[in-house]
Write a structure and sequence with these properties.
The protein has about 450 residues and is an alpha/beta fold. The chain has helices at about 15-25, 40-50, 55-75, 80-100, 110-115, 115-130, 155-170, 195-210, 240-250, 260-265, 320-330, 355-360, 390-395, 425-444; strands at about 1-5, 30-35, 140, 175-180, 180-185, 190, 215-220, 240, 270-275, 285, 295-310, 340, 345-350, 365-380, 405-410, 415-420. β12 and β13 form a beta hairpin. α4 (about 80-100) packs antiparallel against α6. About 40% of the residues are buried.
């Protein structure tokens, strides 16, 4: 069985939904994972924000706008009156559910219920479209099998068992359609896998059914060697290892959800990144295959906060670092980079939710300095096995930029630099000129 995930842009209009339908295989079983149509989740976020502020009239105005948009989608998507009637019924039901939320006290759980409606809309409308075109398909409700634990991790055993039960109901069907992003939590409330979580859904589902391949379809022809929004003449990378792709996704490559590599890697399922606007393009294949000892790509992650704990009295004491890490564990805040000296430890985080509490807890170890508006620039490749001087070439390309921290050796797949965000674009361009263009000229 193959998994095919299509993002919001890929199903962003009636025309795009028709194009997606043409990409589906007819001779092999496939589970199609859909995001909400582009713009829908942002619109639903705005509705939730207005409700949270007590602005019911504004929430209703936004809801009416979105409902009208979907009425137009129905008019554009279907040719048959019977299909249009079914589509109208779906829209009527979903927007009645949204408006029912207006009558309840606002809460995070209610907000997540509102956000779930985008995927419920796109999948139902797409399934009706398949039906109109004579293509048998089954709608698999993700809320029946996608579940997360109290730690917000996928409940793998539950997902595997309940997805199997759903599939066993339809032994003669080849095409299954389900929602990305949405799930239930340990309290059985409607929840989600955070923004971009449809990729994660596809990988989790692929692992649960032991898929032959997971395809992530977006509007970009694979993972590029640099950020094409900033750097000219970037190019898609044909092959990446799981570890390389995970590093790039975590450190800012927007094409792929950071968590989506692990489930596929654990079951050795290849992941392909493909372009719905250019389906003939090769894209990027991510697998366990060794892809050669060279520098592959660079990514950048904004919104980084640096924390320095300085203590000449405690730093070398037994258990000091463990105590520091326990603070971040207590507040469920991951650490991105870390460096140490004889009298200080510096580290970075990308989530400031609990920064005041973390700062207070760390002050018992020594003086604490906080710095924000920082960016991690991560260069990915196979540095440990590359020819001598590869890392030096990267560092030299950044010689004119103040480097706040450098992390090298923790992984054989990356070298990371912390810079002020104002230097981010310069850093990406400089690495492109100092590393990738030089290689292209050497290969020419």
């Amino acid at each position: 069985m193959k998994i095919m995930k299509f993002g919001g842009t890929s199903v962003g209009s009636a025309e795009r939904m028709g194009a997606v339908s043409q990409l589906l295989p007819t001779q092999e079983p496939v589970i199609v994972v859909l995001s909400a149509m582009s713009g829908t989740t942002n619109h639903l976020v705005q509705i939730g924000q207005q409700l949270a502020q007590g602005n019911g009239a504004q929430a209703e105005s936004l809801t009416a706008q979105l409902e009208q948009h979907y009425k137009q989608v129905i008019a554009d998507l279907y040719k048959q009156e019977a299909s249009k009637d079914k589509g109208k019924q779906v829209v009527q039901t979903v927007f009645a559910d949204i408006r029912a939320c207006f009558e309840r006290a606002f809460s995070p759980a209610l907000e997540k219920m509102i956000l779930a409606q985008g995927e419920l809309l796109s999948t139902q409308l797409f399934q009706i479209f398949q039906e109109e075109n004579g293509i048998p398909s089954v709608l698999l409700p993700a809320l029946e099998f996608m579940k997360i634990t109290p730690d917000e991790e996928p409940d793998q055993a539950f997902i595997r068992e309940n997805l199997r039960k759903q599939l066993e109901k339809y032994p003669d069907n080849q095409l299954f359609i389900t929602q990305g992003y949405i799930c239930r939590n340990a309290k059985n409330e409607v929840d989600n896998l955070k923004r971009g979580g449809s990729d994660y859904t596809a990988s989790i589902v692929g692992a649960a059914v032991k898929a032959s391949e997971i395809q992530i379809w977006t509007d970009i022809d694979g993972m590029h060697n640099n950020d094409p929004r900033i750097v000219k003449n970037t190019y898609p990378i044909a092959e990446l290892s799981f570890d390389e792709a995970a590093e790039l996704a975590y450190f800012g490559a927007k094409i792929l959800h950071p968590s989506s590599i692990l489930p596929a890697q654990q079951h050795n399922i290849p992941v392909r990144l493909l372009n719905t606007m250019q389906p003939e393009a090769q894209g990027t294949t991510i697998s366990s295959k060794k892809t050669g000892n060279k520098i592959k790509a660079v990514a950048a992650k904004d919104g980084i906060i640096a924390i320095k704990i300085k203590s000449s009295r405690m730093l070398l004491a037994y258990g000091f670092l463990r105590s520091v890490f326990e603070v971040f564990e207590r507040f469920k805040t991951p650490i991105d980079m870390i460096t140490t000296s004889e009298v200080a430890v510096s580290l970075t985080i990308d989530n400031a939710t609990h920064l005041p509490e973390i700062t207070e807890a760390l002050q018992r170890f020594g003086s604490v300095e906080i710095d924000s508006d920082l960016t991690i620039v991560c260069v990915v490749g196979d540095f440990m096995e590359d020819k001598p001087g590869a890392a030096l070439k990267v560092v030299q390309s950044l010689g004119h930029i103040p480097l706040r921290m450098i992390s090298y050796g923790g992984s054989k797949n990356n070298i990371s630099f912390l810079v002020n965000t104002v230097h981010k674009e310069d850093a990406l361009v400089s690495i492109n000129e100092g590393v990738f263009q030089e290689r292209e000229e050497a290969n020419a």
